[in-house]
């Protein structure tokens, strides 16, 4: 058995951000606004809220859509931008001071990058399936059936799916763009936020202008695929993401400790280049309560990266990366989150059906219960047999 004490329970965003749903699912405050307007006490269930997904916002667009049901008439009749501004100001007023400062700083940080970073390959900032994806991936998805999707998937171990995903030309362009970003960071002496608490190198793609492209990638591809492969998480859609690049090799990160991701589903695609080592080792899916529990032999699986090939797994699937011993390895990582899954999880009292340890404990309890019933029946039978017959 491996010692799991090294597992870090949760890797945070570059900005140390807490999971978004904690903000999203708070009941909207019954509050006075700057103009003295008050939010409704109860939501307007007949209202069809606007979609805020294309706007640059400090909070999840889903939160704006749900908060809109509480807006007073006067605000409801204004434009979408005015409604968004009104709700943003309100949310900022009611978020804790530290969170407000973090949001403001992150916004300024992104604005600074967007105003001074010159893009190398402008064409990769908007999703073009025909040039981004491998033909097999496009073909499988065009069939719009579970069978078509599964035809390109390998599942080498429970809950781990691998498939050919990215076109080599797109990988080359993204690699060049990442090098261009790193050069800009070095030349401009900009201090950048790294992708998470474990990686010291790499860039957050969302901070460099890739947010809408990655959102489309999640909405149109990863979310529908995940609904088929991980129905326990994605009965509803994945509605937020954190997209970043990690780099391993000489003068970069070497390995990555044993951990779980802050995601419902993680996509990991190797972009290149030439390298040896860097295998990902997987050790079973766990809920929060069992994240450090022991490994079952059947849960052990090691994966070797192949450029262009993707691996899709639950964020709670415990994993780590072995040392990249030579060359330079660059991977695109997309953490996909579901606010509704996180909300539902808060109400879950019973064992989760997807955690390996929950399943084991549940099976053990069932066995004990069956055994106890059996013993009780045997005892009753023996007592009956020992009583003298009434005849
Ligand atoms: Fe990870
Ligand atoms: Zn569990």
UniProtKB/TrEMBL annotation:
Its cofactor is L-ascorbate. Keywords: Dioxygenase, Iron, Metal-binding, Oxidoreductase. It comes from the Eukaryota. One of its GO terms (molecular function) is iron ion binding. InterPro entries: Oxoglu/Fe-dep_dioxygenase_dom, Pro_4_hyd_alph. Residues 1-51 are annotated as: Disordered. Residues 239-338 form the Fe2OG dioxygenase domain. This is Fe2OG dioxygenase domain-containing protein. The lineage of its organism: Eukaryota, Viridiplantae, Streptophyta, Embryophyta, Tracheophyta.
